[in-house]
Every structure is written in C-alpha cells, then in structure tokens.
Write a structure and sequence with these properties.
508 residues; Poly_Biosynth_Transport; mainly alpha; membrane; transmembrane helix; globular
Length: 508
Amino acid sequence: MGNLDEKVGDLFESSTIIFIGLIVGNGLALFAETLIARSLQPSIYGSLALAYTIALLSSRIADFGIKDGVVRMVSTANDLGERTHIFQHGLMIVFSTALIIGIFLTSARGLIGGLVDDPKVSSYLIFFVPLVMLLALRAVAFGMLRAEGRSLAAAIARDFLGRILPLSVLGLGILLGVPAMGAIGYWLSVSIIVLGVSFVVLHSRYPLVKLLDVDVSRDTVFRLTRFSLPLAMSAYILILLSHLDILMIGYFLESNQVGYYRAIQPLRRASTLLMTSFTFLFLPVATQFYENDNISGLERFYTVSTKWLAAGTLPMVLVFVLFADDVVRTLFGAAYSPAAPALAVLVSGFYFRAIVGLDSEIVKAIDYTKIEFWSAMVGVIANIILNIYLIPRIGIVGAAIGTGAGYIIYNIVEVVAIYRRIGIHPFGMNNFKPLIVTTIIALAIHQTTTHIKFGIIGLAVLGTLFGIITLISIVATRSLDETDLLFIERIEDRTGLDLSLLKKKLSS
C-alpha cells in the first residue's frame, strides 16, 4: 500500500506541474491559433493548415515510435552510461529517417499540391520541410525529460518558453502585414525553442558533445527498433486517425472548409488536456509496477488515475459541447461559426479517451505493443469508411463523427486486449456516478440559458461552475476511497490549505 501511495503521490505532484504548464501552454497556443485564424481568410488559413498538417504527419513517421522506445528502455536502465547510449541511438535513428522524409517532401511538393487540388499548399510546404527534422529530434529529447522525471523542466520547455517566444514571431508577422509568414515562423520556432531548451536542461547529464560521439551498436539499434517498430506502425495508423480528417476535407471540400475545421481542431485538446499531464510520469511508473510483478498495484494505479482524468476533464468538455456556438464565436469570430457543430461532436468523441484512461500507456508498460497496431488499424479503417461516406454528405461534421468514432473503437479494442492479457480494467461505479450527476445538471443549465450569448467571462464562469458541481458530485455520491484521500493530502502539502474536515467527511 505504501509503495502504491508513494507512486500515486508522485504522479499527482508531477501531473500538477505538467497540468499547470499545459493550462498556460495550451492557453498561449490557443491564443496564437486564434490570432492566426482571425488574421487570415478561411481559404488561406485552410491552405496553410493543410501544408502544416502534411509536415506534421511526416515528422510523426520520421519519429518511428523511437521516443516511446527510448522512454521505456531508459526507465529500466541501471546506469548513466547505458541511458546515454540509448539516448544517442534514439537521436541517430530519427535524424536519419527525418532527413530521408524531408528530401522526399521537397521533391514531391508539387505532386502533393496537385493531389489536394490546391497549388498554394505546395508553395507553403517548402517552408515546413525543416519542421520534420525539428519535431522528430524534439520528440526524443522531450522523451528523455519524461524518462528522467523532469516535469518542471518539461513544462518550462514546452509550455512557457516554447509558447511565449514564438508568439513574438507571430506578432511581428502580423504587424508587418505578412500573417501567413508569421504563422509559419510561429510553428517552426515552437519546435526550435523546445528542442533547444530540452538539450540545455539535459546537458548536465547528457552533454551534447558526448551525444554526438556515437559508438553505433547494432544490438541497441535492434532493441530500440524491435520495441518501437510495433509502436511505429501503430503510430502511423494513429497519425491517420488524428489527421486524416483534415486531409480528406482538403480532398473532398473547398479550402475554406479546411480553414473552419482546422480552427476548431486544437480545441479537441479540452478532452485530453489532463490526460497529457498524467502521461508524463504514468508510463515510467506503470512500467515499474509491471516489471515488479505488482499487477494489483498497477490496476489500482490505472483505476484511480482514470477516475481523476474523467472527472477533471468533464467541466471543460461540457462547456465546449453544450456551448459550442459561443466558444467558436468568441474565439474566432462569426466567420467561423459553421465549425461549431463539428466542435461539439469532436470534443464529445475525444472525451471517451479520458473515460478509459491511459490504456495506450498500459499497453507500452506491459510490453504488448503489437495490440497498439491492431487496435489503431481497426479504428482507422472505421474512420476512413465514415469519412468517405459522411464528408461529401454532411461536410466537416462528418469528419468529426468519423474521427471521434475511430478513436472510440480504437480505445475499446485496447481496453479489451489489456483485460484479456493481464486481467485489469479502469472502470468502476465510483468513476461514473459523479459524471452522470454533473452531466444531468449541466444539461439543465444549458436548457435554461439557451437565450443567452456567453462571452469569454461567461464561458469561464460556466466552466468553474461545472467544476464545482463535479467536486460536489464526487463527495455526494461517495465516489472516493482510501487511495483518493492521498490526492487530497498532496493538495494540502502543495497549497498549505487545511482540508482536515473534508478528509474526515470522506473517510467517515
């Protein structure tokens, strides 16, 4: 019990830091995306976003699943020399693959522009070719921060410096009357700064000069690729699952429709924001539980984290789903209002990921990575079929349905596979009772406020209100147990608040 409590406490402390960083980072990112969308016509924004998406997908292919292989192997390595050796080989592999893919994109950009019937895409794409290399190297370096448990450094790199400094590049482009170039500069500088800060933070243990002095080991390359190859294959499939909607909208519809959808696409993070903060430390800790043959501890760790993921994510999801019109109008202006129904559908579908918890991290922790590929394959097939059928008929809402359904199917297959493999799942009545109560109350509030147009302050008040209702629902439905009390104790430690009355109430 003590070991589990310590791990859950570590997860909470790390997640608190990461979550604060994510709130700030995603807030700044949303501000930047809002500036980009507002400064460009939807058609131009659509072409630019399509080129960026192609480069982003290419970088995921170049990553080759190596970042997760590095995290897992470093988490179980015994000494610094072995960790350095693994880090070196991870960087070497992704550098090679990114170089090849970058050359291909440069030579094939005209063909790509023709496939999506938008010549502006090929013009913009040349500016994004360096992004392939930057994102691939950044993934491995950031993975090392994760393996080292450097949550504060990760937050500074990705969510503070990695957002604040690029905003100045974007602002300069807008002031000079070249917002498209400002957007390109923003996206490139985000990766440059995160990569640079990651290497600076890691320098004391992993000096850059030492990292460049690689003694190539076929065995290390083989072990990394053996673990990462199934992840890479599933990652390629997940790439399609995440971004196929943009590509297929670009193929079937006009560029302005791409612009509408791309504007609201980042808002789906509302469903996974807290999940990302938990992910940072979850895989190393879950791996340790499994390696120590502590399956019961792993199940409790999985279940309690899922409970807080689902409950913590729900308030923002309810705002984005029930008040989608107000969210889109407030953030992007009336010109992007056609995207509101797609936003509601997309966020709803993505919330299922919070309900099932970090199933993908469990798959990696128990070294059952091949199921990642097959579950992703089933999800993407469903996504493709739905997109082909729905996008020509109902437009970007069809794309949102296809993407959401694809992720739901993917997660269901993984959860079933995990249960069949080691007999654990993240579900329990205590997970669902507060969600049901809060949702019913939120629906009632929505029905009584349909005549009101909410601005940014009103939406923030609604989110806060739903958060309070969620906490009250957790207590009122008696959805806490002994492990959950540890979270409250950690909140006391971190904030200095006296929550003894609450703990007494919950333990009674």
